[in-house]
Amino acid sequence: MVLVITKCLECPFLRREGNERLCVIATPPMRPILAEENDRPMWCKLRKEQIIVRDFK
Description:
Oligomer: single chain
Strand content: 25-35%
Structural class: mainly beta
């Protein structure tokens, strides 16, 4: 199975803690994602690329 991710809401590196959305791979780690940043934040390491996640089960 291959997933193509283009938005933060679909990203497997997104962590939700309460009402806060955090990016696991950001610098610094666990950087909050603001509400107005629905697609990808300007500081996203993967902004210029699509994120491809493969499931090798």
